[in-house]
Amino acid sequence: MERFDLLEGYTSFEEIEEKENAEFELESAPFSAVKTKTEKDDDEDIKLDFIIIKTEHEGFNCDAESSSFKLCGKSLLEWVINATENPTIISDTELGVVNTVKPVLKDGEYTVVLYSDTPLITKNLIKEVVGFTRDKGLNVCKLTRGYVFKTEYIKRVDEIYSPQVYYFDEEDLIIVSNFKQLSLVCETMRNRIISFHMSNGVQINDPSTTYIDSDVTIGKNVIIDKNVKISGTCEICESVIIGCDTYICDARIGEGTKIIGAFIESSVIGENNNISYGVKIVGGTIIDDKVVIDASSILNHCNIHCNCNIGYLCNLKNTEMAEAIMGNNVVCSSTKAINKVRIMKGACVKDSALIVAPYVVDEDVTICEGEFCKKSVQG
Q: Is residue 172 within 8 Å of residue 125, measured between CB atoms?
């Protein structure tokens, strides 16, 4: 299971099968392993330093820093940082790029200077540009947005006069200077993320209506239907089925679980569960394995152990269940997190019961249909 931002994002669905293993390995490698193949020395490493210049654009016409705007779970600046290794981050000045970066130059053979407004930049492009600069013996390689400098050269000069611009993959260097451009770049990044997961064994039935943030890891043999959003930091284990109209945020979904049209946030779901349409699971709820939750039930700050069945339209807050059965339209009410409703192994709560915490339904006890419970029931 891999997270998109550690590897390469593909730019289109058609490219998935065209990517070779060597290119995949290149993108995964750390920059300390970057090499160029020259006639003189095929094995010499290139030591790189990175500088990112934070640039703010008035085109956004708002008070917030444009470098902090979010794009598929990361800020514009974070995306550029993600494509580098241990960068130095500085603010833009009116002194020109040479005098701006000189005070923070280090001892690397080459210094890569990027800007915070190019979030589509990739490790592959940087490695390609550095290799090109080395092979051509350039002191300066000017990109449409950014530079690669030979460090010793840039330390000696005060200005670069009319450097030649070299063109590589220009999509990776698109500048985001207003909200319209941010929207367009967001679509590109979204497609890269989806293409990445599809190339790693995830079946996405309708990519045009699927949204997956960058900090989501997804295992193989997962099926994702239309109108699904997975955001924040999520882990979706192997062989999970996510049906249409599902929203998952900051959650872990265990292997083999089936979710259809549910809302899951800040919770942990175990293996081989079945969660139906309209279910809402929030507030740090933990659900173990082999649990069935019927339509439109709400679970808030609950702990549901293995082999439980919960009917439809139930509303559970601060509830703990252990191998029990719950009917439909049951309410377990708690006004304080310290007070819980506990339903023990083998218990059965029938339709429309109301249980007010603190309350314990003992093992093998049945709560009758419509019963109102305020104190413990003895078995």
A: yes
